[in-house]
Amino acid sequence: MIFVTVGSQLPFDRLVKAIDAWAAKNGRQDVFAQIGHNAWRPKYIKWVETLKPEEFQEKVKTADLIISHAGVGTILSSLELGKRILVMPRMKKLDAIRGEHQIHMTKSFSECGLLNAAFDEKELLSKLEDFNKIPIHEKIGPYASAELIDAISDFIDSSPAACPKARSFDGIICFGGEDWWYHNRGHYDMQMMRKLSQQFPVLYVNSLGMRIPKLKEGATFFLRLNKKIRSLMRGLRIPFKNFGVLSLWNIPGLQNNPLLKMLMSHQAKRAAKKLGIRSPLVWINCPPAVELLDSIPHEYLVYQRTDRYEKFPDIDIENIKSYDLKLKREADITLFCSSLLFEEESADCKRALFVDHGVDYQIFNDAADRHREPQELKKIPHPRIGFIGGIEAFLFDSKLFLEVAGSLKDYSFILVGDSALPKNWCNLSNVYQLGQRPYEEVADYMAASDVLIMPWNKNDWIKACNPVKLKEYLAVGKPVVSTWFYELKRYGGFVSIAENAHDFIMAIKKALASPQDPDFLRERVKDETWEKKAEMVIKELEKLEIITNPRPGSQKG
Amino acid sequence: MADKDGLWKSSATKILAVSSPGGHWIQLNRLFPVFSKHETVFVTTNPNYRPGISLAKFYSVIEATRKEKLNLIIQLVEIFYILLRERPDVVISTGASCGFFGLFFGKLLGARTIWIDSIANTQILSLSGRLVAKFADLWLTQWPELSTPKGPEYKGRII
Question: Are the C-beta atoms of residues A305 and A335 closer than 8 Å to each other?
Fold first, then answer.
């Protein structure tokens, strides 16, 4: 049987006419043609307009010769069944088609030996004369080449559709370690949030507190209570574009109370919504906030492990420790700003990153250059020894300080910052307690001092701390005298270290007698701006999106 | 985190394989080893092809050529509807208008897209093959002569 096919779309009268005439002349009864709609009707051979796919397959299967237009379907079916095939391509001019692609294809295929071609009726007839001599291409397999199958399979398997889609967040909820309204705004989380708020809306939630306040603290208790209530009364404030601040109604130290949890997460979520934050990154610098994680849906979790929170005095140590461990395990990134903690604890984290404090270098550097002395300092004689920052009883070594200040009666000691010490802790006439000043002004106080000091207690907290003020001190280019803490190992030659009152006094005297070159000190911190630090965190978050895409289990601290 | 959100639950990839009937369809079906590994949904314009793929989900849409503008629009809407319903992870096609629409809407809905230009196009890519360049994540030709550094790529043939 000879099967003639022209495809289902268009007639190909030139081919059918030639075959019909040839069959009549040679008396061939066994020719069957599929001729398409609206085609010229053959007179001698049997024909149909179209065939169903299974009928078509059957015809190809039983044919000894297939005569066809240059249609891929027919050619492939013939090749799959190992049939003899003769192809005559349609031509643009004679067969009213769009282009010469059939000719091109026929040439390319016959060059590969896949088919036998006849480019016009004359060639067709001459080939039909002895069609049993037309060579047959060997059968091809039922599937595409392994090369193509592999390429496509590889592509599909590598497709992220097979893995979870990259997550993205539209804002940040930061559970801060301090209170925006009554702490100095140079703290790590506040600075980071200010910088990040240039890219995302940020909700800064003031510290939830780590311990239950005790009445027996007396004055301090009421002082704290008063501040907290004033902070709460402010509600949600938006001091800068894209940057909201909120205090949550809660009882510090009781964050695991279910009712309080509900109340707190509701407040936070409502405020976040107002800022346009719907799928937040949650940033925790206050471990008890971990209690709220379940009720605040979030895309990412960042844990800022600034200090050894569990060494904070009077807290429920076990509780804070368990919060800390949970956070390190679950946070997408745990940020360390103390190299000691980073070295000791990164193994406990899902993913640890060391990004220490930055400094508003420009502000402090400019303050040193313009030397605008604050009014209240004008009466205070030089040499001035400055401590600029909050005074916490368990951080600030008041004994050491009193010994030093008591011995250096000719020097003025200025203390700028909120004090949590009892009112009458220091009665020395050469010590000036100026209280807290706005963050924007502290640089001027530093610049107006001759030596800057850090008389810290010796405890585990201090050992692992990395005070923000160190870089600020250096950025104004003033000599620094400090007690030892681990982070100072990265500042060899920039900071004088003194372990007791005697050494401290000697170090201050030496710094006054032969001060270090201010530019040398500034150079050390010049590139450590908050912008750079925030960039590091954002970069890591971007990288993380890539890392979380591949299969689970591939991410390890 | 990930476990909590259930994000790592392995989900089988869903493929939508779409082409016009005839040669394009036969070429598409020669990729069976790819389809057999995943859940695959087939789309073409000839309802008679349904029996050939009894195991998979099958849709047929209206036939259209580039002259039949109204049919093209109906086909476009039909294919968009199918994509919305099926939300495949991967859309794969060997040709013609329904394949082009499939890749276009697939891309729009976040699927990854594969175009294998027909083996019939030996000297110049098909019209839809050229138009689809922007929407194909994997853009292939079956003739090395047609591959260029900017695409399409040659990665083997369907034979």
Answer: yes
Amino acid identity of residue A395, one-letter, is L
Phi, psi angles (nearest 5°) of residue B83: -65, -40
pLDDT band at A97 (very low <50, low <70, confident <90, very high): confident
> Which residue range(s) make up the domain with A495?
373-528
Nearest neighbour of A72 by CB, restricted to B11, B26, B37 = B26
Q: Which of B13, B20, B30, B157 to mutate to test the interface with A (most CBs of A within 10 A)?
A: B30
Q: Cβ of A73 and B1 within 8 Å?
A: no
* Backbone φ and ψ of B8, nearest 5°: -90, -5
Sign of dihedral through CA atoms B69, B71, B77, B79? negative
Superfamily of domain B17-151: Glycogen Phosphorylase B; (3.40.50.2000)
**Cβ-proximal residues to A387 (8 Å cutoff; 6+ apart), any chain:** A396, A401, A413, A414, A415, A416, A417, A452, A453, A454, A455
Mean per-residue pLDDT, A358-369 = 85
pLDDT tens-place string over residues A118-154: 888 888 888 888 888 888 888 888 899 999 999 999 8
A136 occurs within a structural domain: yes
pLDDT digits (tens, 9 = 90+) for A457-497: 888 778 778 888 898 999 999 999 999 888 888 888 899 99
**Mutation target among A143, A168, A328, A334 for the B interface, most CBs of B within 10 A:** A143
Residue A85, class by beta-carbon neighbours within 10 Å (0-12 exposed, 13-18 middle, 19+ buried)? buried
Q: Tell if the CB–CB gap between B26 and A70 is shorter than 8 Å.
A: no
The Cβ of residue A375 has, within 10 Å, a number of other Cβ atoms equal to 7
Q: A497, A456, A503, A448: which is closest to A473 by C-alpha?
A: A448
Q: How far apart are CA A37 and CA A50, in angstroms?
A: 8
Coil, helix or strand at residue B146: helix
State the smallest CA–CA distance between residue A147 and chain B in angstroms: 5
Residues of A in contact with B155 (CB under 8 A): 147-148, 151-152
pLDDT at residue A412, rounded to an integer: 93
Judged by CB atoms closer than 8 Å, whether chains meet at A147 and B155 is answered as yes
Least Cα distance to A287 among A263, A252, A313 occurs for A252
Pair (A270, A401) in one structural domain:
no
Which H/E stretch holds residue B58?
strand B57-60
Same-domain pairing of A471 and A540: no
Query: Which of B3, B22, B158 has the CB atom closest to A7's CB atom?
Result: B22
Distance from CA of A50 to the nearest CA of B (A): 12
Of the pLDDT bands very low, low, confident and very high (cuts 50, 70, 90), residue B93 is: very high
Percent composition of chain B: helix, strand, coil (DSSP 3-state, to 5): 40, 20, 40
**Do A265 and A180 belong together in one domain?**
yes
- Confidence (pLDDT) at A162: 42
Closest Cα in chain B to A298: B1
Number of domains in chain A: 3
Q: What's the rounded mean pLDDT across residues A273-286?
A: 88
The stretch A100-127 carries a mean pLDDT of 87
Say whether A53 and B49 touch across the interface (CB within 8 A): yes
- What phi, psi does A207 have (nearest 5°)? -45, 135
More confident residue, A308 or B10: A308
Please, what's the b/e burial string for A244-279 (b: 16 or more CB within 10 A of its CB; e: otherwise)? bbbbbebebbbbeeeebbeebbebbbebbeebebee
Token pair of B81 as six digits: 């509807």
Is A148–B25 a contact, with Cβ atoms under 8 angstroms apart? no
CATH number of the domain within which A450 lies: 3.40.50.2000
| ipTM for the predicted complex | 0.89
- CB-nearest partner of B22 from A73, A144, A301: A73
pLDDT digits over B20-41, tens only? Answer: 988 899 999 999 888 888 888 9
